[in-house]
Records
---
Amino acid sequence: MQTPFDLDNTAAYLRWRDHKLNNAITDTNELIVEIKDPRALTQAEHAALLDRCRRSNMVIYAAHTDVDDEDMVRQFGAQFGLNSLDANWLADEDGISRVTVSAEDGQRQAYIPYTDRAIKWHTDGYYNPPDRQICSMILHCVQSAGQGGENRLLDHEIAYLMLRDNNADFIRALSEPDAMTIPERTDENGVARAAQTGPVFSVDPISGALHMRYTARTRSIVWKQDASTLAAVAALEKLLASDLSHIHRTRLEPGMGLLCNNVLHDRSAFSDDPDHPRLLYRARYHERIAGTHCS
Ligand SMILES: [Fe+2]
């Protein structure tokens, strides 16, 4: 399988790089596509959404509908070939999580997504085992926060491109199978999730697509302690803190959502309007958005 993400294939990389930079979206307004009913997209709406995903691995839709439930999210995803929901241990039974501030005492409260705190740059499911990689996701906003709760978004292919242009050794180090380790998580019953060691960047051997696992957290992650890994991690941190035109800043409002091939994202802290607490549905899938090939 020829892939531009092969460090030994410079010609394929340069061809892909040209195409990527000529087509990648840098104007956040261009990322947004208005749609009527997420459950039944028109051909034109579907084409417009897919166009953004092919160019930048993500799209923000703005739906004119007051139907927003888990079923709507599932039906929307199915139109992009997304069917294999990841069974998150905290998700409701159907595999779609209700991301909201948890008032109850319990496990959810211990996890940042269920608080009003900021979440640093990451891709979803960076702690998942290789057979349960999160390749795409949908984040649908039912209710936005009283204040805050913005997201920054960066196509992980652009992050790869910028790092590789800077120094191919950064990619080499971050592709090592022991680059990052997420320690095991324990609860009162013992080990709830085994430690996961793996690369940041990996390439699907069949499709040639690029996958990225990353978290900017400094706790509950152990980077390989050698000079090339630490230099690569520092370069990535610098990139994410920069004002790169490919980093989008946005806030999802009710009816809006993000469909993406698990791009890099973060979330700012927020404060809820007590009568209308922030609520997002989050669906994570094991397949990429159909029709988004890497070259
Ligand atoms: Fe996330």
---
Amino acid sequence: MPQADRRSATAAVPNDLESFWVPFTPNRAFKRAPRLIARAKDMHYFTADGRAVLDGTAGLWCCNTGHNRDPIVAAIKRQAEELDYAPAFQFAHAKSFELASRIAALAPADLDRVFFCNSGSEAVDSALKIALAYHNVRGQGARSRLIGRERGYHGVGFGGISVGGIVANRKLFGTLLAGVDHLPATYSREHQAFTKGEPDWGAHLADELERIVALHDPSTIAAVIVEPMAGSTGVLPPPKGYLQKLRATCDKYGILLIFDEVITGFGRLGYAFAAERYGVIPDMITFAKGVTSGAVPMAGVIARDGLYQAFMRGPEHVVELFHGYTYSAHPLACAAGLATLDLYRDEKLFERAKALEPKWADAAMALKGLPGVLDIRTVGITAGIDLASRPGSPGLRGYETMERAFHNEDLMVRIAGDTIELMPPLIVSEAQIGEIFDKVGRVIKAVN
Ligand SMILES: Cc1ncc(COP(=O)(O)O)c(C=O)c1O
């Protein structure tokens, strides 16, 4: 590493770790042996002491173009000099319209209206609110129930944890939203173990929606929200035909279908959106992360035209939807978003992900048979590898895996309990795919 880089990286070592309450992290363990990142470029992170760490996780499912790409960095710099901020309410700036049009063009069918937010959690809560308000403005205010799914992750707002299905994210936070029900999770190791892509077994689990609808009566149900591929609980691809069945049932009863594409959007499954991969058109798509390749916080909801039109009524000087955020469509985020979408297009990164998927899946499945490996799942450029838990200490082997990968193998992996999750930037080379799984294989053997 050049001397100048080493100096600036060393300056990134903090002298006090106490004040920062680190999110979704065991703070005491982390502060005893922190995993600190100083800078990044393309497929690598660099630690303060100059180690290059291969990014197996696209940051946190977001840096799909790779890190610190010059066009994105330049766009952010230019924008910071030109316009720092414009009020998000009653005023706007040109790039917000440009970015919305570009996103609408990527989304399927008439998913043409884009509402901007700053995080996936806000996007989810916005979509749920739009669903409730939509039924209200059409005189169907009794439709107030929201249906999520077990093992679903929809961020950490009260709406998101209510429809979400991760017990630890819900149990300490009171009664959550009223009127929420959950579909069963789509995963069964018995029927699906070691499947590449969408499993054959499990479409029938969508029939549970009929049962839930019958229990509550369709007239009380506003929306169903699912991740097309559940990422945060270990990469759970949808069974073949499952999403189509959900769509059909929602159509039958006038229920809105929301796809939470916060991690599946922008190429992860080889398409702009998973909706396209599965040929299922939801009423709303939530997005975040990949829209700016993680460079500036940005998120949003893409709604079908009919939803937007339903609100366009009443006196023209009156706000149609009482919802929004100070930083909705922030100029820096819009500039980063436009540069990111250019990179996806110019480098054909979605197509690249699609082309790489078979090689990625083969490389992942080659770990079958290693000690303690209970299941491996892949779809797009994602993989989930379930490890056997240490008796009495669920999550411990997973934690050891992440630590060992980072400190001993110079690889960043993500864990969900004892499941290793992998989702590198979409610029990953075939050699780097081999490197990722070689390193993961060595770690799995070491933590056995
Ligand atoms: C499917 C899904 N929805 C929502 C979120 C929440 O996004 P954020 O952390 O930006 O609030 C995530 C984050 O990983 C996610 O995976």
